[in-house]
Design a protein that fits this description.
By secondary structure, this protein is an alpha/beta fold. The chain contains 12 helices and 12 strands. It starts with a strand and ends in a 6-residue tail after the last helix. The mean pLDDT is 96.
Length: 299
């Protein structure tokens, strides 16, 4: 089939696009610059120059395609509305990318035993209410004749398959460590996130895309780890010794309030049963092993 992928030069979108090309699908990918267009061409994607603000372009590409994957932003309401409007009544698939910070708490490095199932009610903290509303809008598009699914990714790790090879959370820790010479975690680092390898996530996108049924809302996870354990693994990998606790105020100065609090200082523990019910069989289960054995160190 022909698939339109937004964010085709990004970490998630590029990995999904590359996996779809490998599976024999034709992929057209939204990119923002000629340089990114050239990058996606190299792994078999036909570039479409534009942005998520180009509603008419998104609608035209959605109508042309057999299926759509929105991997450029979890928070751009206008883009999602344009895609759903164009696909309404078509029975085409629309996969929207979300993130499990929607269940994140303001733990500041402390542990929580709360674990969220896919049907657990969510009362989002911080600025995540708008994201939850978008997720619900996409799931509700099934009633408008769209085979819609929301793939809510957890902490993604691994080297991307596409042109952009970095995620957010682990690179944030690495960047701070290389700059300061000390690996740090927010507070005591006891906070835990569910995790998933980017290649396993890309496999799930393909599986859901090829399914004849609406996917609904599904968490994308395979394992979990505390930030203290991840930071300790980074310290060993980078040769910087044991990690050090960091007051939230200092973390906010380094990473900003949203990233420090909800990406690096929160708990986000979830269980993804719907993906496994489709037959998804992830191959990578330990972010700690990846950090110590496979993570590129770089300069």
């Amino acid at each position: 089939m022909e698939v339109f992928v937004t964010g085709a030069a990004g970490y998630i979108g590029g990995s999904v696009a590359a996996r779809l090309v490998e599976a024999g699908h034709a992929v057209r990918g939204l990119v923002r610059s000629p340089e990114k267009a050239e990058a996606v061409r190299r792994f078999g994607v036909e570039p479409v120059l534009g942005t998520l603000d180009d509603g008419a372009l998104l609608a035209a590409e959605a109508k042309r395609a057999d299926a759509v994957v929105n991997a450029a932003s979890s928070d751009h309401r206008g883009a999602v509305e344009a895609l759903v409007g164009a696909l309404a009544g078509s029975n085409k698939a629309l996969l929207h990318t979300s993130g499990s910070s929607i269940v994140g708490d303001d733990a500041r490095g402390e542990f929580s035993d709360a674990v969220f199932e896919e049907d657990t009610p969510v009362a989002p903290t911080g600025g995540r209410a708008a994201r939850v509303a978008i997720d619900r809008f996409v799931v509700g598009a099934a009633e408008r004749g769209v085979r819609s699914a929301v793939l809510c990714n957890t902490l993604i790790y691994g080297t991307g398959l596409g042109p952009h090879e970095d995620s957010i959370q682990i690179p944030s820790l690495v960047g701070q460590a290389k700059k300061s010479g000390v690996v740090r975690h927010v507070g005591r680092g006891l906070n835990v996130w569910s995790t998933v390898h980017v290649e396993d996530a890309a496999d799930l996108y393909r599986l859901v895309l090829e399914s004849p049924e609406p996917g609904g809302f599904m968490f994308v996870e395979n394992g979990e780890a505390s930030f203290r354990d991840m930071a300790a693994a980074l310290g060993r990998r980078l040769g910087l010794g044991e990690p050090q606790p960091w007051p939230i105020e200092d973390a906010i100065r380094e990473w900003g309030p949203d990233r420090a609090t909800y990406a690096l200082g929160s708990n986000s523990r979830v269980r993804g049963r719907r993906a496994r019910a489709l037959g998804w069989a992830p191959r990578h289960a330990s972010v700690l092993d990846w950090i110590e054995r496979e993570m590129p160190v770089g300069p």
